[in-house]
Write a structure and sequence with these properties.
CATH architecture: Orthogonal Bundle
Helix content: 55-70%
Radius of gyration: 15 Å
Number of domains: 1
CATH topology: Endonuclease III, domain 1
Shape: globular
Order of helices and strands: HHHHHHHHEHHE
CATH class: Mainly Alpha
Structural class: mainly alpha
């Protein structure tokens, strides 16, 4: 239980903080993908497990995962064992690698949508976090064109909020 609480506290600490760190951005993408259909707490509680099974969020290593690694993930009792989401993480890691040479890294790709500025969005008090925005929709559409999976507008909205690219006012 302590590990789960650690993941939730860590997510609370980093959520919404502006970041350009590729490893942290990949971590947030992993959480956003696993969060789909679950609560953010369920996904965030698995951060220590995700860190262990996804090579400390090194997307280059995850991009090289093959059948043996996927099978190990599917049999890990601590893992959220959704085969589609697990495959999506590997597919997304490969898509990040393919962003080069157009973008120097994942951060440059995500931040180019806002010209490296935080995008302010006004929301009603108490509005849900996953309320979609035009930016989330544009980024999700572009990510899908580039081979990312499990990246709908709601998932990407949460990623952009978590990364501090979008700030709610």
């Amino acid at each position: 239980m302590a590990k789960q609480e650690d993941g939730i506290h860590e997510y609370d600490r980093i959520f919404g903080q502006e970041t350009h760190d590729d490893q942290l951005l990949f971590e947030m993408l992993v959480i956003a993908v696993f969060q789909a259909g679950l609560s953010w707490k369920a996904a965030a509680s698995k951060i220590p497990v995700f860190r262990q099974v996804f090579a400390n969020f090194d997307y280059r290593q995850v991009a090289g995962f093959d059948e043996p690694e996927l099978e190990a993930l599917l049999t890990n009792p601590e893992m959220i064992r959704n085969p589609r989401k697990i495959q999506a993480i590997v597919t997304n890691a490969r898509a990040i690698v393919k962003l080069a040479p157009e973008f120097t890294n994942f951060s440059a790709y995500l931040w180019h949508f806002t010209d490296n500025n935080v995008w302010q969005v006004q929301v009603e008090p108490g509005a849900p976090l996953n309320q979609q925005s035009s930016l989330g929709t544009v980024v999700a559409k572009d990510m899908k064109k580039r081979g990312f999976t499990f990246v709908g507008p709601t998932t990407i909205q949460l990623l952009l909020l978590a990364a501090g690219i979008i700030k709610r006012t």
